[in-house]
Amino acid sequence: MQTTPDRTSPVPPAELLGDPYGSYALLRQDGPAHRITGPDGLPVWLVSRYADVRQALADPRLSLDKSHSLPGNYRGFALPAALDANLLNMDPPDHTRIRRLVSQAFTPRRVERLREPVQRIADQLLDAVAPLGRADLIADYAAPLPITVICDLLGVPPEDRRDFRAWTDELVTPDRARPEAAKAAVAAIVGFFAQLIARKRAEPADDLLSALVAVRDQEDRLTEDELTSLAFLILFAAYENTVHLIGNAVLALLDHPEQLVALRAEPALIGSAIEEFARYDGPAPLAIRRFPVEDLAIGGVTVPAGETVLLVLGSANRDPQQFTEPDRLDLSRTESGHLALGHGIHYCLGAPLARLETEIALATLLRRFPALALDVPRDELRHRPSLRARGLLALPVRY
């Protein structure tokens, strides 16, 4: 085995944002793992080949617990304990305990019961913009659909629903020139959930958050910080990934009119189409950072214990060693195994809900707006300036 020294990435950071998939191809060709200097000046390992990423996602020696990072080697985004005690920072047995408490709410069978309310929300959102002849599909459709669904599921009253998109934007793509904005967003989120949990304690209802409060208070299976962190993560993840998956899928169809024609002609393709959209341009280019608990071989390269490892899901899903013509959108693709929603014990808890929402969002949009087209030149579209979230800032369309 060999240890790769610090070196310049085969692609500059700007290219990872401007041309991510071309950059990923260069990473895969250049080697199995790259130890580079990240934007924060600290070392980080990038793993980009499908086989290595898939194996690493399920390797228990790669910990999500930040206590396994080397001192001074990882900075990350500082969250208060009330938000930090979440599944994205945990290993078993705590991860197993907490995931088990909430997983029953997201089984395929239970999620299927949400089909009718999700369909109703999608129709209402399109009813609102249909007379206008044009819309921003992110602000008017892809964003409000999942946030409405998850707020209904958690039991967030309509009058208490704040600008979650503004808060999550500050966390995912913080403005380095305005660090106080991210801190203000964190404080607002903590305050919001503290008030909401207090209300559920006083007036429990038939919703997921009331059930979690009961687990905390009556069964003592959650700490208060774990309860708040879990509620935050459910809301954040259910919104963030789904809005980008819907937006990216619509753009992929508009970029590939022959695939749009095929899907309109055969609506039954929608299930396989969702998997292809997730593979082709998924919402999360990177898995959550991990830390080896011991020196670890990845693709024949030794990654020392305690260093920061980023598994590049967006690259793995375009690896020609796993997928035929990976840069081609093919809604009838039979190859499976994309990693857009993870793999192993940290596989996306809300995957069934994200699939259902995306399926209904796309099918309803295509059925109701047969003349859907971009309302701006293609080169004017902009993605969020983030390596961690792959999503459009806006998607203006006419119909």
UniProtKB/TrEMBL annotation:
Q: Which domain of life is it from?
A: Bacteria
Q: Which SUPFAM superfamilies match?
A: Cytochrome P450
CDD domains the record matches: CYP107-like
Residue spans making up a coiled coil are none
Gene3D superfamilies hit by this protein: Cytochrome P450
The UniProt similarity line reads: Belongs to the cytochrome P450 family.
**What's the protein name?**
Cytochrome P450
The species is Kitasatospora kazusensis
